[in-house]
Amino acid sequence: MKVMNIIHDSVVDGEGLRTVIFFAGCPHFCKGCHNPKSWNIRNGTEMSVDEVIEEVASNPLTDVTLSGGDPFFQAKEVCQVAKRLKKLQKNIWAYTGYTFEQLLASNDPYKQELLRYCDVLVDGPFIFEERDLTLKFYGSRNQRIIDLSHLDSVGLI
């Protein structure tokens, strides 16, 4: 899979101390994106699932945020990472330009599988005109922070 960067000890990409995996590739091209170089998947570095997990596990005190780009752009590979992260008992946040409803309606089974491993989803494209610097953990008013941790048990995902 293609990864832009992995950073440790973030406090702005979800609750608590987090390791953030920035994946390459994004189809949304949001005006004002904080990471436009991540749109092109060729800008990422090829990493295996094992390499990503090893880097995350090197900092055992943090939970994990999947960001990008858009982690759902490489859903097949990223869901393998998320599956392994859950075995390490990591809380997983994911940022995506897709809406929750678009992911649920997707014909891509890997997008739906990845959703099931996520505890929290920050959904929706960043809309520059709706930017709000007072929001915690997201950038524009159209985006939502959705607690997914209980949805699998009731059959919604």
From TrEMBL:
<dbReference type="GO" id="GO:0051539">
    <property type="term" value="F:4 iron, 4 sulfur cluster binding"/>
</dbReference>
<comment type="function">
    <text>Activation of anaerobic ribonucleoside-triphosphate reductase under anaerobic conditions by generation of an organic free radical, using S-adenosylmethionine and reduced flavodoxin as cosubstrates to produce 5'-deoxy-adenosine.</text>
</comment>
<keyword id="KW-0004">4Fe-4S</keyword>
<keyword id="KW-0408">Iron</keyword>
<keyword id="KW-0411">Iron-sulfur</keyword>
<dbReference type="GO" id="GO:0043365">
    <property type="term" value="F:[formate-C-acetyltransferase]-activating enzyme activity"/>
</dbReference>
<keyword id="KW-0949">S-adenosyl-L-methionine</keyword>
<dbReference type="InterPro" id="IPR034457">
    <property type="entry name" value="Organic_radical-activating"/>
</dbReference>
<keyword id="KW-0560">Oxidoreductase</keyword>
<keyword id="KW-0479">Metal-binding</keyword>
<dbReference type="GO" id="GO:0004748">
    <property type="term" value="F:ribonucleoside-diphosphate reductase activity, thioredoxin disulfide as acceptor"/>
</dbReference>
<dbReference type="InterPro" id="IPR001989">
    <property type="entry name" value="Radical_activat_CS"/>
</dbReference>
<dbReference type="InterPro" id="IPR013785">
    <property type="entry name" value="Aldolase_TIM"/>
</dbReference>
<dbReference type="Pfam" id="PF13353">
    <property type="entry name" value="Fer4_12"/>
</dbReference>
<dbReference type="InterPro" id="IPR058240">
    <property type="entry name" value="rSAM_sf"/>
</dbReference>
<protein>
    <recommendedName>
        <fullName>Anaerobic ribonucleoside-triphosphate reductase-activating protein</fullName>
        <ecNumber>1.97.1.-</ecNumber>
    </recommendedName>
</protein>
<comment type="similarity">
    <text>Belongs to the organic radical-activating enzymes family.</text>
</comment>
<dbReference type="InterPro" id="IPR012837">
    <property type="entry name" value="NrdG"/>
</dbReference>
<dbReference type="GO" id="GO:0046872">
    <property type="term" value="F:metal ion binding"/>
</dbReference>
<dbReference type="InterPro" id="IPR007197">
    <property type="entry name" value="rSAM"/>
</dbReference>
